[in-house]
TrEMBL record:
Entry GO MF terms: phosphoenolpyruvate-glycerone phosphotransferase activity
PROSITE patterns the record matches: DHAL
Top-tier EC class: transferase
Name of the featured protein: Dihydroxyacetone kinase subunit DhaL
Domain of life: Bacteria
Lineage: Bacteria, Bacillati, Actinomycetota, Actinomycetes, Actinomycetales
Protein species of origin: Schaalia naturae
Residues of the DhaL domain: 6-206
Keywords: Kinase, Transferase
Classification via InterPro entries: DhaK_L_YcgS (IPR012737), DhaL_dom (IPR004007), DhaL_dom_sf (IPR036117), Dihydroxyacetone_Kinase (IPR050861)
Known EC number: 2.7.1.121
């Protein structure tokens, strides 16, 4: 489908299901190198997003939907991830086009989200955070946009790159967030936030395929 308001809604419905399905997995990952609440935080946040988007006065543009997502996540998720994802969706909403997304818009919106996360959390590539899923996603979308691919293809490439980026956090030592307190003991575990980012972007691509 075109990447428009209906797509943004379908994406968020998909994320709501995915966070419920992956709740235990994300809790388990966060137990290894954090405080074990990431799955609960994300499931609660995106359940609240679903509720906010089903209200009678819910927005009917992609930008408006992304802004509601941002506000809802900021007020319900808490922890490190709440403000980070909240800022990501807020910046994404500001970068969103008035109509349907082009492949360049896909890149620009993902880049804006990443910019918000880094402005807030100061993490760089390799610090073993969600940034390690976002950076390759932005790069992959950029390559597709430059190659003249469709918006759906740009999103697919971004989702695949995020998944690979999340998998690649396993051998890293955390340098940001709670996991960094573990020092070398953070090595050998996936970063929960990088995994939740890859789930979110997988749903963006999935919704586009529908
Ligand atoms: P908390 O650590 O407060 O319990 P969560 O468990 O919900 O919060 O989220 C943890 C995730 O947040 C980490 O796996 C990591 O991906 C992400 N994170 C933490 N600090 C930062 C940061 N400074 N920059 C980017 N991402 C971060
Ligand atoms: Mg946690
Ligand atoms: Mg916590």
């Amino acid at each position: 489908m075109a990447l428009d308001a209906a797509w943004a809604r379908a994406w968020m419905a998909g994320v709501g299901r995915s966070m419920a399905d992956n709740r235990e997995r994300l809790i388990d990952l966060d137990r290894q190198i954090g405080d074990g609440d990431h799955g609960e935080n994300m499931d609660r946040g995106f359940a609240a997003v679903e509720k906010a988007l089903s209200a009678d006065d819910a927005p009917d543009t992609a930008a408006g939907i992304l802004k509601t997502v941002a506000r809802t996540l900021m007020s319900t998720v808490g922890g490190a991830a709440g403000p980070l994802y909240g800022t990501a969706f807020l910046r994404a909403s500001k970068a969103a086009p008035a109509g349907a997304f082009s492949a360049h818009d896909v890149h620009d919106v993902l880049a804006a989200a990443l910019g918000g996360i880094q402005a807030r959390g100061k993490a760089e590539r390799g610090d073993k955070t969600m940034v390690d899923a976002w950076i390759p996603a932005v790069e992959a979308a950029g390559i597709q946009a430059e190659a003249g691919s469709s918006p759906e293809e740009a999103l697919n490439a971004a989702a695949r790159a995020a998944e690979e980026g999340a998998a690649a956090t396993e051998p890293l030592q955390a340098r940001k967030g709670r996991a960094s307190y573990l020092g070398e003991r953070s090595i050998g575990h996936l970063d929960p936030g990088a995994v939740s980012t890859s789930l979110i972007l997988a749903q963006a691509a999935e919704a586009a395929r529908a």
